Each structure stands twice: as C-alpha cells, then as structure tokens.
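Bug #77: duplicate submission created two jobs. Keeping one. Sequence:
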Amino acid sequence: MARVDRLNRTRYWHDRTMPGLGLMHANLHTHRYAPHRHEGYVIAVTEFGGSVIRSRGREGETHSRVLSTFNPDEAHSGGMGTSRHWRFRSLYLEPAAMREVGAALGTAELPFVAEHLLADDTLIVGFLALHRALVAGRDALRRRELLVTTFGALFDRHADGRARLEPGPRDRRRLDTAIAMLRADLASPPRLGALAAGLGLTEYQVTSLFKRTTGMTPSSYLTQLRLDRARAELRRGRSIAETATGCGFYDQSALTGHFKRCYGTTPHQFATAVRRAGSA
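Kept job's structure:
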C-alpha cells in the first residue's frame, strides 16, 4: 500500500507580468490561520477537502462548490475544522494589481464583495482557469482575458457597496491616531495604557475600538503592521534576518512563524517569488 504523505506543501509565486498579483497552491493536512488581514483581495478555489473560515462574527465552511473571497483589510481566520485534507489555489490582488484591474474594468475603485463564500459554479471554473493560466505563464492574451472577465464577473454579480460598514467619524479619527502611534515605532510600540492615554480612553475602550473597527485586537493589528512592513522590506531585497529585527520581531524565527500562520507561506518563499518575478 502506498504511503500517504501528510506533509503540508505550499508553493507561492508573484505573477511576472502584473506587479502585486500573488499566487499560491497549497496542499494542507494541518494548519490554523491566525486572525489577519491582507492589503488587497484574496480569492481562493478549493480543489479538494475544505476548511472553516471566520470573519465578520460568522463562521462558514469552504469546499469545492464555493468560492472564498475576502476584501482588502478584512480580518479573518480559519482552520481545518473536521477536514483532514485541504487543497486549494488562491490569488492575492494587492494594491498595485487592484489599480491595474480597476483601470481594465473602467473604475477608479474596486467594490466590496458582499459575501465570503459564493456558490457560483461559473466563477469557480473561471478563477481556477485563471490561476492555472497564470502559473503556466503562456498565452498572454488569454491570461489577460481571463483576468478581466473573472474579476469583472465577480464584481458584477457579487459586489454590494452597502455591505461595507465604515467606522463612524469619531471612531475613524481615534483608530487613525492609534495606528499612527503603533506605526511610529514597530520595534518598541506603546503599551496599551499609553495608547489609551493618547486617545483619552480606557484600556478596555481601546481594545473594543480595535475589535469593533478592524476585527482584531491591538496586539494582533500590531503584528499585521509589522508584517506589512516586512513584506515591503523583502520586496526591496532586504535579508530576512535584517527585516525581522527592523520590523520589530524578536528574530528571524519569530517573523517566519507569524508569516506562516497568517499567509500560509514563509518569508523565504515570498522573497524568492519576488526575485523571480523581477528577473523576468
């Protein structure tokens, strides 16, 4: 009898023709995504098995008959649930790629996708074909056609501008101030009490503010800010070790752990994908 390989395997690429378009092919038997968010859209197609995702205070199951979608800056987490195997393909449309797709669709700002799990067989087939075509790297005309038509269909059929609940003006100002305080020194950020004092709130109110407006606690959001900076540094060619300490992580191992828990890939895989895309 053939031995069953239970190792998690992930491959990550950056598309060589569009800056800001990332691709992943993952084959997981055990994994748990920590609460996190991305700067752009995440679209995932399940090929086998499934998982559980959590966002906006709700929980749902991914499987081969639904398309998983997350909007920019939308906090989410997940895990294997009762599934023992999850194989999926995902696309990461980061801000640079968002602008290019928006221009191709004739809109200055891409809309909000109303639901995380879309039972849309046509879109599932389309995004699966798009992912495979981008990985193959052949037939530029077809790749572009698939990119424009699949994202166009996604937004035409499932966008809902009313679904995005923006923070009220007072919360927005307070959140912006708190984020600026955290971002000012990622290596030695202010303590919760200092954040509270700077906003004129209690520590409990600051924690509630972050959870209400971002879906994450202040400490989880700080990790996201550090990861944002780390990704930017790795794109510029900085070493992983220097990136880790420069972005406020204890060491390279800590950066790798957080990177993998949030993105399902490692800093090394990410940096390698950036280099390969840049050398095209």
